[in-house]
Structures
1.
Amino acid sequence: MGLTIKISDIWKEYDGNPVLKDCSVSFEKSGIYVLMGHNGSGKSTFLRICSLLEEPEKGEVNYFSGQELMKKDMGLKRRITLVLPGVGIFNATVSSNMAYGLRIRGLDNKEISERVDRYLDLLGLFHKREQNALTLSSGERQRLGIARAMVIEPDILFLDEPTASVDLGNSEIIEEMILNMKKKGQPTVIITTHDVSQAHRLADSLLTLKEGRIVSYE
Amino acid sequence: MTTIIDSFGKAFFLILNLDRELLGIIFLSIKVSGTALVVATLTGLPIGALLGFKKFSLKGLIISILNTFMGLPPVVVGLFVYLLLSRSGPLGFMGLLYSPTAMIIAQTILAFPIVTSLSHSAIVNVDPVIRQAAMTLGATPSQVSFAIVSEARYGIMSGIIAGFGRVMAEVGAILIVGGNIAGYTRVMTTTIALETDKGNFELALALGIILLTISLIINAVLHLVQKKGMVRKNRWV
């Protein structure tokens, strides 16, 4: 059964400066949620808290499977994933990067091989699978980061500004990858962007953050 | 210049004739320094990683001490180990003074701060986003630590190579605790010191050339392992 998220009154501050102020929202349907806002509006922090990478000072992030409240344990954390703006590519081949999440989950080599090849093909990086991932262009690295998250087939995929530092060509490829996920209805994608036109192209639901508060949800 | 050329000739002559005494000295040098390096790595790498991953009081002091000890004078280490192992010392009952084991202990003390400090430095210099990436992909805390150590592998390897350079070239400590006993604790550096004292410069220089050649070969092998390790690491099975 798919996961739903309920966020209640989260408050987060850094060095006494509030970044998120009593944000509450629920992500109950599958689809693509786009979180919009200017730089510094708190989008990335919101995503990091939703994906359980950080804890809020106040408020709660709860995951449900049907009506059942999930424990925030490794089992839940392995059903969600976040692609950071810097991606965090390992100094290893493209294949090795792709396989990381599968290997730590203990999948057998045959399945790892099959999934990695399938997603690399989808990504258009199959021919670079034995190349060191650090030699890829920034756009290719971003695509690899998304594919590395997709290959583990999470229930919820968080993408923090996935096209912020890539060229137009790579941006289009990434948008196509996201739209393909939308067609399949899996996984639920929660994405931040400050590009209004991109937000409207991708979104099933659109949220706007302003100065740490959710000001609209449509 | 003639002495240097003669020394090269003598070095080749000694090697080609497989002089048993010389081979014994070379093997003991490699055994003592190699064992010291392995022990220093097996203890220093986990401690370096612990210092990199954990926050605790006195951590800064420990790192400062390690950094200071990277430049420990070998004769001071030799004296310290001598006092520990001498008959009247706390470990005198073990009867280790003037043995290869005493030399290994002294060289381990010299290599340990280098391996530990450079491993720690390599680990803390890994981009923080690597840690977060591993976490977001579902890694457990130990898997996250392993991913960071894996990213730091070239820096760690540099620390091991630096440690090897330190112990292989060292003479002061092992001379004090080993005693330079022919056929038992005599290694290349102590032999060079002895032959120089005797005015036998050709043999001393020949041994120096052999020592440099061995260091070059071992460093080249370590470098190849480093490169091969990268290729192996790059495969995902």
2.
Amino acid sequence: MSRYNIVPAAWISTALAMIYSSYSFAQSTPSEFAEMSLTDLFEQTIDDPSVSHPDRSRWSFTFQRKSAEFKDFLEGDNRVSEDEVLWSGPKSGEPRTDKNFPVVPGKIVQTAYLISLGYAFNDSWRGHLTVPYLEQNTDHISIVPNYSTFEIESSGVGDAVVSASYRLSDTERANWWVTVGLSIPTGSIDEEGDTPRAPGDQQLPYTMQLGSGTYDFPIEISYHSKGEHDISVALAALIRSGTNDNDYRLGNSYSLAGRYNFHFSEILQPYVGLNVNYTDSIHGADTSLTVDSPYPYPAPITNPDLFGGTKIGARAGISWQVSDHYRLAVEIGKPIYQNLNGPQTREDWRSSIQISRPF
Amino acid sequence: MSWFFRIVFALLAVLVIVLLLNPDTARADSTNDAFSKESKLRAAYFLNFIKFINWPNHSQDNPLTPLYICLQDETPFEGFFRDLASNAAMADDGRELQIYRLSEAIRCDYTYLHRPIQNENSEIEGSVVVLSSDQVSQQDAAIIFYIAERKLRFEIDLNNIKELNVMVSSELLKLARIK
């Protein structure tokens, strides 16, 4: 099966699972459980989740919209102005270096719509399928005639992720989960658009592609304290493998995220969080993005070395239990420190809104 | 920064493998009185037992004497038990169920403990004490949960029952392991 055939199959199975899940939501209630006789209870094993969680479904469903905006430049943790990154051209007398470019991105906006479906095989094992739909937009300025300002866009299905989570431990005070997944290269790495590199449509830079083009492995270990203080900590990694059809591999990323939940009420739960993220630069290169010149990269986003770095971000959000089964969460985040392989466009802010039907 | 994350992940990978291979981890759910399934079954049993026990303070002349139920503080299933009890509303004989945390209770007819009580506790004197597990040691416990073949079972200490002067139904005794 090619990676493009996987996409409709994933959407169909998602739709079928959603239909099925709407039936599975109607399960036995606590009142029914309370009416079970002693002999009924005597027959139950402690492994049966439908007994232990009579008001829970085996299915979970999440729809999330995530958005992030990037603008201005950083080299390491130092600000670099757009004028410094934009090369003024041969007539200006400004020397061309590997730190300035005839084309520079102004603002990058990325929006992802994620549909995630989960299934609890039992209390210890859960499986998830997540399919993203991405929309990306970058505006540029350049010294190329007829392209002094231009915009490129791409959109489509990104890389689908299947994952399995195992509960290492669950006590009245805390639980530990480990998650291992496989990211399937269902997102395109051949998105094209009109750039100053040549007339007509050409291959778009790495940031505008929808997938990695490689099979990748998300791994996470998480801890959730259920004591007096509701704290979650997750250590995660996305390990890339191989090289894609365009001869590159995106960098591995590693993150440590913490979150503190305030229980002001049963329905509304605000939270604050902090996360540290490190991403490697891109390995290899898509040579179709380069030009035949001593300085082959026409824009910073075409240079594979100018990706990745360290980011520390703060975030705050609120989770609202809108009904017995559905939860709405809104979050905003802002980096408080960035050290980037630059010059690179720095992250300005990010936000997310999600509606979920947890297990 | 890369080396830091790589070292942390390598250490965690080792930790995960050790945890997965450690038989104690596999038994964590049962030995730690996990919040989820076992606890909820315990809650349902704990509520059900009331139907099969007759307390001496239950007077035929005053059938509405409340039954004071005490849950030891931090009982994992407290919220779930309160939901179950509110659905059941009252015991079969019409008694109102009053549920308290042990630290807040002034009287207990029926008590659930998930860990031993170190000091003498006058509130549970004369109370029918139910223990969460046979791994918990409490001398005056009347009913003790244990697990056999992945099922939750219970043992009844007849000596302690006799001292409490409560009547336990033969139906309950038939299902119990007798001590």
